[in-house]
UniProtKB/TrEMBL annotation, chain A:
Range of residues in the leader sequence: none
Domain PaaD zinc beta ribbon: 119-167
Species the sequence originates in: Pseudovibrio denitrificans
Gene3D superfamilies found in the cross-reference section: Fe-S cluster assembly (FSCA)
Domain MIP18 family-like: start-end pairs: 15-85
Alphabetical list of InterPro entries matching this protein: Fe-S_Maturation_MIP18, FSCA_dom_sf, MIP18-like, PaaD-like, Zn_ribbon_PaaD
Pfam families: FeS_assembly_P, Zn_ribbon_PaaD
Protein name: Ring-1,2-phenylacetyl-CoA epoxidase subunit PaaD
Automatic annotation (TrEMBL), chain B:
Descriptive protein name: Ring-1,2-phenylacetyl-CoA epoxidase subunit PaaC
InterPro entries per the UniProt record, alphabetical: Aromatic_CoA_ox/epox, Ferritin-like, Ferritin-like_SF, PaaA_PaaC, PaaC
Organism: Pseudovibrio denitrificans
Signal sequence bounds: none
Example of a GO cellular component annotation carried by this entry: cytosol
SUPFAM superfamilies: Ferritin-like
Gene3D superfamilies per the UniProt record, alphabetical: 1.20.1260.10
Domain of life: Bacteria
GO biological process: phenylacetate catabolic process
Amino acid sequence: MAVAAKILRSELDQKAWNAVCDVPDPEVPVLTIEDLGVLRDVHVQADGSVQVTITPTYTGCPAMSMFAFDIEAALLNAGFDKVEVKTVLNPAWTTDWLSEKAREKLRAYGIAPPNGKASRRALFGEEQVHCPKCNSANTSRISEFGSTACKALYRCNDCSEPFDYFKCI
Amino acid sequence: MKDPALFTYCMRLADDSAILSQRLSEWCGHASHLEEDIALTNVALDLIGHARELYTYAGQIEGKGRDEDALCFHRVEREFTNLLLVEQPNDDFAYAIMRQFLFSAFMHPFWEAMMKSEDELLAGLAAKAEKEAAYHLRHSAEWVIRLGDGTEESHNRVSDALEFLWMYTGEMFECDEVVSSLVAKGIAVDPMSIKHLWDETVNTVLVRANLERPTESWMQTGGRKGEHSEHLGHILSPMQYLQRSFPQAQW
């Protein structure tokens, strides 16, 4: 019985996960909360309520309340009417959690994906960022901070395209 | 209250972040160019994030039901315990950049050290804040160099900013009973343990910026005890206006 209950619960968890995993990032709509790694855990409790755990990309990320709202709506649509969205900071989100698929989606959308491993950089370390349009490495940084907390502004010196770079953290 | 020292410590850090964030937000729509406008408000946003976590945590430690908004918007000037450095006005872009640089050069190693804190929330927040502070430091340091090594005008302005703000840097390294009792428990960061890192960053950047490090002299202090410059009241009045006029207002 205990085993059956466990399987049942995990199926329910999976159903709830499936209901929320496609919630898009309001600022980078090609990415879902699953792609981003913002969605950490979905658990259906004994009383039928769902506890969803998310983590912010940046501590001040204004999209967090939007995520919570969209998650509740998605679960309501899937028949779960009691939802609690919990935000955790630990472990700290890192761009290393972005899947290869997510990086490809970003590139296709015109945003240069973050470089490799989030490594410790020197104070003035320069990153080599490739243009998402023409793939040239001959790019220059316009600003360390872009339209959202997670992006920086770059320009391609070959094709002249200005673009966002998803910062490596 | 189960841990008054931890409450005080978190409130100090929260106030530093909240007040500097408010100062930076004053640049919104006024910065030298669009990219810089966005950059300064992005830094402000990160700092709001830190302040929110810290106020919320402090409210839980206090256990009197005060939430982040109550702690940020329903306290008076003398109850704020931020560093005097962060409340200094935006007289000039060079002042804002120098203030940010002197603060971030401290906060980056501070959060890095805090990652090893015995306090789970502070360690978790530190792991995020450290990455953000690295960007704040890089951004402000690049500007200090660009201004210091720029025209005669920009050099003079950033040099004045350094001379003026220097007397507020000593306060970052003060270690009173609140800090030392938490350092002994492995919770707080001993500010003197990161002094050499701050010195190293400041010296490296000032050399590259053709700026002279001011000689060590008398340091202004008092922020941690609620003794502020006249500027704090002028920050709080627009910042708290709405919550004071319409307490508990939500939208």
